[in-house]
Amino acid sequence: MFSLIRLGALAMCAFLLSPGLTACRGETASTIVQTKMQEVRAMSLPFGVSMSQASTEAQGGPLAEVTPSTSPMKSYQGNGYTISYPADWSINQGTTNVTMTEPAMQYGIAIVSLNNPNGTIDANEGLQLEAKDLASNLSNVQDDNIASTTTEGGETWYQKEFTGTFQGEKVTYAIMVTNHPANTSGTKIFEEVYFAPTNQFSQVKAAYIQPMLTSFAFTA
Q: Are strands 108-115 and 139-143 parallel, antiparallel or unpaired?
């Protein structure tokens, strides 16, 4: 999730630094922000985290058929939320983020939540920044023109979906962003990005992602 590097830095500068660090200028502040960026980069590699597999498939190997998981669902407790995921999926967890990917690491979902008191970072603005930065790492980007908002966990989320090419492989990303609760001292900004090879995206969404999104619940 590339622009969350920017979003994370904004949030860190405005809200997460100690009282003595009031701007992103001091050495200590920079170190904190760089750490946040590294955490975000770890979950942001396009097309899941297994480009070597994707590259092999792009050269002629068939993509595996998407079939619903027979694995039981497990509950994950995140920063201000819970979500269920297939028990055989891999979890890569950072301080404020998590990536969940299927065993072959070809598709999955990434979730980030950051303190955002009073909703200072607008959710739609965050979505547009994220989409712009992520799309800049792809070629032949096409907007999939989905509805601009959706509902999850009783909250309205801004959303965007687009398809592009990364290292010769067509991939599709969907991004969702919201603030919860709205305009309070305890507001957090939440972002979800789910991704899959374009020719599997609809199947992946129906078999895995939609049940996960349906299970999502805010805990505060």
A: unpaired
Cβ-contact 33, 15 below 8 angstroms: no
DSSP letter at 73 equals E
Q: What is the pLDDT of residue 36?
A: 40
Per-residue pLDDT at 17: 28
Quick one: three-class SS letters along 78-115? CCCEEEEEECCCEEEECCCEEEEECCCCCCEEEEEEEE
**97 near 80, Cβ under 8 Å?**
no
Is-above-0.85 flag for pTM?
no
How much is the pLDDT for 96?
85
* Three-state secondary-structure class, residue 67: coil
**CA-CA distance, 218 to 82, in Å (whole number)?**
6
> How much is the pLDDT for 136?
86
Residues of the chain with pLDDT under 50: 1-61
**Whole-Å CA distances, 192 to 55, 161, 162, 167, 179:** 25, 12, 14, 23, 12
b/e 35-64 (16+ beta carbons within 10 angstroms → b): ebbebbeebbbbbbbebebbeebbeeeebe
Structure tokens at 160: 């965007």
49-89 pLDDT tens trace? 443 344 334 434 455 567 666 779 999 999 999 999 999 99
For residues 74 and 130, what is the distance between their CA atoms, to the nearest angstrom?
Answer: 28
Among the listed residues 118, 144, 120, 113, the one whose alpha carbon sits nearest the alpha carbon of residue 131:
144
Which domains, ranges and CATH numbers included, belong to the chain?
A: 45-218 (3.40.1000.10)
